[in-house]
Amino acid sequence: MSRTSVVEKWVDEAAALTRPSRTVWCDGSKAEYDGLVEAMLRDGTLLPLNSRTYPNCYLHRSHPQDVARTEQLTYICAGARDDAGPTNNWMSPADAKAKATPWFRGSMRSRTMYVIPYLMGPAGSAMSRVGVMVTDSEYVVASMHLMTRVGPVAIQHMRGDDDFIAGLHSIGDLSPDRRLILHFPDEKLIWSVGSGYGGNALLGKKCHALRIGSSQARQEGWLAEHMLIIGVEDPEGRVTYLAAAMPSASGKTNLAMVVSSLPGWRAWTLGDDIAWMWVDAHGQLRAINPERGFFGVAPNTSPKTNPNGTTMVRSNTIFTNVALTPSGEPWWEGLTPEPPAGLVDWQGRPWQPASGPAAHPNSRFTVLASQCPSIAPNWEDPQGVPISGLIFGSRRSAVIPLVFEAFDWTHGVFLGSAMSTETTAAITGKVGVVRRDPMAMLPFCGYNMAEYFAHWLGIGQRLSKPPRIFRVNWFRRDADGSFLWPGYGENMRVLKWMVERIRGTARADETPIGSIPAPGSLDLQGLAMPADRLARALRVDSAEWSSALDDLGEFYGQFGQRLPAPISKTLAATRRKLGAA
Ligand code: GTP
Ligand code: SPV
Ligand code: MN
Fold this sequence. Notes:
Layout: H1 5-18, E1 22-25, H2 30-43, E2 47-48, E3 58-60, E4 74-76, H3 81-84, E5 89-90, H4 93-104, E6 112-120, E7 129-135, H5 138-147, E8 149-150, H6 152-156, E9 165-170, E10 180-184, E11 189-193, H7 198-201, H8 204-220, E12 223-225, E13 227-233, E14 239-245, H9 252-256, E15 266-271, E16 275-279, E17 285-288, E18 293-297, H10 307-312, E19 318-320, E20 323-324, E21 330-331, E22 364-368, E23 385-386, E24 389-393, E25 403-405, H11 409-417, E26 420-422, E27 434-436, H12 449-462, E28 468-472, H13 491-503, E29 508-511, E30 514-517, H14 531-538, H15 542-557, H16 565-580
The protein binds guanosine-5'-triphosphate, sulfopyruvate and manganese (II) ion.
């Protein structure tokens, strides 16, 4: 493989710091993947699964303290604190390097350093970007094979000697006390030490494609978003493309491959986690998925909730922190109604129901996107797909209606910026706590979020026909604690309403916060959904909203003068409307 001198120089520096006994340049081949798997089976990093029912599938058990993203150890190391903004952890680049350098020094001694050139985005796309990461973890290399395009294809897409994001990764001793995930957007550099977990260690994903990516996107005039991409096909065969942002473990993978409960309607999967979007020469928003695979949440993935997901992980899949059945099959809560007898839990112990779930709540599968039965034929189109609608969704047991539509682009950006959500097991810390999560980007925006809102507003000005913007919440609960909306395959009913709104055929009723489906406009054929239950799912409660907007006002207050005026004006206008309602 041809390597540029800048890449080689950086790799040499990484080796000088970490002192590996050998360096391997990865070519992304199947032989390389198979070799890594073999080595990991030998040293116990991977366990084989049932080769008849789950061919070429493996189980990885991570360190019990290394099972999710650690946001408190994740930093944006840009020039000044205010450049990172009040929602990011910040350290000066010099301090960050001084702190992490001792943990990297000699960390690869008597180990192999793998050099992984990777491409984010389809081959041949002007939007695709190159990274080169080094790591001492075979699990990371194998995962990068599945999640990105590894090898010469990456180097071929460099537009200059230094056109790559450099990523230095070492698992260190896996102690959270010696873990840091550091981003240096000005230096196109990522340092990650002390974790082997997905979002902390697969540097192409959240670190590059979102944190560094969003910072580059702002400078270059495009969007790097925590969004799935889906094509919704109607009974006439017309496909409408939508992108949807939802916080971690809040429904992107499920919606991306939804199997419709509505006859004649179907969904095509283009991406499940990240979208890179830009305005084309005609003022049309277009999107590509920079990833090559899915790193998805296992719990509650079942033939009922996500049949495509269940099918796609039956071969060539790496499972992390799931439970194991006596016949060597992976298992997680929700896969089958009852747990099979004789389970071994995610830490390798005989499972005791009293000691908690058998699979870790953030257990995951890693698999090529091409294995998804609903993968769109054009998912790797270098030109991307035209986006007609954007969705902001979050996990809220109260307040937020099932679905409503923004009045226009600015109002939609306001709704995105106003998102809050209940935390999940995808991050370490307490689960179920409501926190602000604008555009589902709170943990992933690589710069000041006030500037990010301004950037979104600016993109709108360049769009000849801005996509419609929708807000959804599959997780609203009834007084008895049950979900008001059945979700999963039934979500196609909501997607259908959106497509019909985009086409101008579905009716909506204006409320102070946006437009909700008019009675009868949400297709409920074949669904036993009493009218009063739907009404509770769609209800806009003025008192609840007024107090929610107080909290939002406080959140906005942190940004001071940087908060764009259209955002504060929209908040004020919403308050007025609620007061009048
Ligand atoms: P990340 O990979 O962390 O970014 O997560 P994600 O947004 O892709 O979330 P995912 O689709 O994996 O869903 C996470 C959890 O939410 C799973 O336990 C799902 O079963 C559950 N979930 C997804 N969609 C729905 C829905 O429509 N209704 C309900 N009640 N739960 C859902
Ligand atoms: C998320 O947490 O949003 C994920 C998993 O998609 S990770 O790659 O760990 O970020
Ligand atoms: Mn995610």
